[in-house]
From TrEMBL:
GO terms for molecular function: serine-type endopeptidase activity. Pfam families: Rhomboid. One of its GO terms (cellular component) is membrane. Belongs to the peptidase S54 family. The chain crosses the membrane at residues 12-39, 59-76, 88-106, 176-196, 208-225, 237-255. This is Rhomboid family intramembrane serine protease. It comes from Aquiflexum gelatinilyticum. One of its GO terms (biological process) is proteolysis. It is a multi-pass membrane protein. Residues 48-103, 173-254 form the Peptidase S54 rhomboid domain. Keywords: Hydrolase, Membrane, Protease, Transmembrane, Transmembrane helix. It is found in: Membrane.
Amino acid sequence: MFRNITPVVKNILIITVAVYAVTAFLMPQLNGLLALYYVNSNRFIPTQFLTYMFMHADGWHLFSNMFGLFIFGPLLEQFLGPKKILTLWMVCGVGSGLLYSGYTAFQMNKLDNKISEFYEEPSPELFNRFVIENRHHFKPAVFDFIDAYSRNPEDPALIQRAKENMTATRDNQANVPMVGASGALFGVLIAFAMLFPNTQLFLLFPPMPVKAKYLVLFYGLYTIYNVVNNNPLDNVAHFAHLSGLIVGAGLVYYWKKSRKDFY
């Protein structure tokens, strides 16, 4: 099985596994430099748009992404050539990071506006609404504080404490990093589906055959559902997956349009 692995796919696998081994076991302090942070975070540096895609949260995260590349990458490399498969992987990975950062900036801007609204006119109602919308960041004891604040809405100490809680929540969200090659992998998946749409793939769970175009369609719809649903307890960057699909589809469409360069 490993004899059929192509050079670029093999090198991506080796580099990504090596980076995971170094950051997970030898130099964990590199995580803060290589993972992708919110662009206005004091931890952000531009090179993270590239380095984050070689980082992974744990062994299962690494395995799932590299297994997908191992399955779909070699045939694409044989068809597209080494230069284009590398371009596909890198452009989808970096493009996914850029689009995800834009999405994060939009979400952070909404959060900043709500905090500014409270600063201008502090009230227990606004703070309570903020806590409910961001409840996964608060401990249950915050509701005791809300009760006390509701009884004393003009107390400067309680107002200050509410502001500190809101600012801390904002800072926590700003410093949640994104890691993983999922955006790049989803670019590979959409490329495979566009170039080999009727290729039969055999799933393990459930054990059944399915055409590539239907498998990627399912992943796409599932990803859109999770982006819209926006479960705060879900730590998967679904928008990054969707971004990888979009960038990959755009790149393959461009290549197919330029047929004399494509074939």
